[in-house]
């Protein structure tokens, strides 16, 4: 089911912006896809993740939803997730932030 | 209609992360909402915009969709849009990046 963005959804939003060397962008995308499927989506409170490749070639962004801030924090403390996060951090500068959706605008 | 994230959608994605002083977060949200309604959504190629307030109190993110990179670049050159962008830049550090969606993962 596709991720939808709504002020009503009972989620917190993680927007994580990664910066890499241009030659590492495909590898980072692969790593994030693999870790999402094998580790993240089985964590309590995971709702969705969406991997975006920057047109500039040096950024990758993950737009993800978690049930709550507590679920996200618990994931950060999970040993298997931590191993994955360390692997990503060895390849990219990582800037994770949690948000709530405050407004939506369509055409 | 709610924004949906899909690898199939014929859009480019703008993720713009703003950093502000904590006392300016509500004002930046207000400014982005107003500019989106009065200026941005009437520009050719605008698809959607979604304003997010950082739980840390010092970030704001806009997850927006445009029909094409060319439409986004044309907006940047529009005089009315430029006036708005300058107003935002006077309040916040701005980090806009364009992306394509490469993968989506649900629970």
For this entry, give a set of tags.
39% strand; alpha+beta; four-stranded antiparallel β-sheet; homodimer; 34% helix; 107 residues; 5 strands; globular; 3 helices
Q: List low-pLDDT spans of chain A.
A: none
Per DSSP E runs of 2 or more residues, the count of β-strands of chain A stands at: 5
* Rg of chain A, Cα atoms, Å: 14 Å
* SSE series of chain A: EEHEEHHE
What's the overall average pLDDT of chain A, rounded? 96
C-alpha geometry of chain A: globular
| Spatial strand sequence of the major β-sheet of chain A | 3-4-2-5
Sheet/helix structural class of chain A: alpha+beta
Residue share in helix of chain A = 25-40%
Question: What characterizes the major β-sheet of chain A?
Answer: 4 strands, antiparallel
Largest interface: A-B, 43 and 43 residues
Provide a count of the helices of chain A.
3
Report the oligomer: homodimer
The share of residues in extended strands of chain A comes to 35-45%
Set down the secondary structure blueprint:
Two copies of one chain form a homodimer.
Chain A: E1 3-5, E2 12-19, H1 25-38, E3 46-54, E4 59-66, H2 69-77, H3 79-91, E5 93-106
Antiparallel strand pairs in A: 2-4, 2-5, 3-4
